[in-house]
Write a structure and sequence with these properties.
homodimer; 261 residues; alpha+beta; Nucleoside Triphosphate Pyrophosphohydrolase; Arc Repressor Mutant, subunit A; 7-stranded mixed sheet; two-stranded antiparallel ribbon; 7 helices; DNA-binding
Amino acid sequence: MYKPNFIHLLLTFCMTDNPDLKEFWEARPLMLPSVSIDCVIFGYYDNQLKILLLKYKNTDCYALPGGFINQDENLEDAAARVLNERTGLKDIYLEQFYVFGDKDRRFDATHHKLMNGSGIILKADHFLLNRFISIGYYALINFSKATPMPDVFSDSCTWHDLNLVPSLIFDHDSILEKALHTLRKNLDEKLIGPNLLPETFTMNEFQNLYETILGEKIARSNFQRKILGLHMLKRLDKKITGGAHKAPYLYCFDTKTASKP
Amino acid sequence: MYKPNFIHLLLTFCMTDNPDLKEFWEARPLMLPSVSIDCVIFGYYDNQLKILLLKYKNTDCYALPGGFINQDENLEDAAARVLNERTGLKDIYLEQFYVFGDKDRRFDATHHKLMNGSGIILKADHFLLNRFISIGYYALINFSKATPMPDVFSDSCTWHDLNLVPSLIFDHDSILEKALHTLRKNLDEKLIGPNLLPETFTMNEFQNLYETILGEKIARSNFQRKILGLHMLKRLDKKITGGAHKAPYLYCFDTKTASKP
DNA sequence: GTATCATTGTTACAAATTGATACAATGACT
DNA sequence: AGTCATTGTATCAATTTGTAACAATGATAC
């Protein structure tokens, strides 16, 4: 744990002598005031929809990955940067889904607790204690390609099963809920498969993804008929597995037809 | 036109001696920095979808009504206030549809031009010249109940037919486009009728509204079957009009069933 | 008063989509 | 070879949607 040494950083009014944190805080004047970003990062593995959560050091506080927007940075790029910092991935599917901006959207007590966990004492006029609006983005990523990485304030950055999510700090619970709701609503219009699935997959895996997102069962044969009717999949070789049954085909997305208008 | 008298307003760095404007500018420190709101206000009249536009004084610049967010004001309330200031209406249907926030979303030349139209010379470090992100809301209002009112910077606040909209300042063209796109997308889920139509209306008027928003014709009998099947309308008396044909029924929305889940 | 006409409310039927079920094919295991 | 779970496909019913027709009605023209 850091020992605060009461050096007063002119621009940021917090106390720390850790060089990483110092850099972090001193960069703040370059950011767009009042605005933050929160990312709901969805991954799919083991027939489960999962999201990436940070756990703050020396606390039991879980949070969505988030960050601020640099003055010379597009909103979308800031979200992509946050995502890249937590997963190592680039060129990821991102969708802005809502802005959260209640007048009492400030969380003084929690911010103090979180920073205390990293040995930082926030002064009363620290910018973190101001009101922020937060722009929500959700990302769909290929689970196996991501390398979750905690930030300087967190112990861990780990996947959580969607129906085993701990309660989150701030208003992150409702941000997550809204993200999930938007994902479900967009499921028929936006092509979510290529982002969440590996290169090749079976029809059963594809159906499981839909069922997991929608939270309901789909009749197998009807699903197959519908999906194949969209001509978005290319059928590949038979999969040779150890299952005591007929081997399923493998499919991949047909890039010629897989994009919808 | 105002004669700038070079009084320097400490907090706002613009030059004017008009008391209204002075109050306007001096209120700025209470606003949430970097964030603005733009409202696309839809009305429906004469079988046409219309939007409300401001025209800046002594310019040919048209703009969506917009404003800033007070520090102690919810985003939604700020949008409702902007709407109220331009139309006199309260308790209006409002939907947040997107946030626009490119890094080069700053419009120095246009801002100078707009303010010059009101006799104001903006200093180089005026807050208006900073980067702003803008949260887009669209509103659906009852055309006949609105009283369009220009603000201090504009000549006029008038309805414009959607297919006769002049080119707009800033990125307001693309904001309008996105609003319209979202409205169309939401048409099946959100109940837009009660907001755009008068208390009572004929089925034909209702269908015209849908056709206007979607930009395509709908088969009459199918529309009637579908709408009546939703049980959201109550049938009232026959309408007695001068039409040389069968008199249509009047309908109103059935408040018991008119809200969808 | 009667004929005409445009529009409305309703019905009838075809086409398409969706839901539910059945069945043959397959590949590993016993 | 027989069993078994799962897959790919076909079949038929139920529902929804597309298209067209038809009778009802209320003004106008004669």
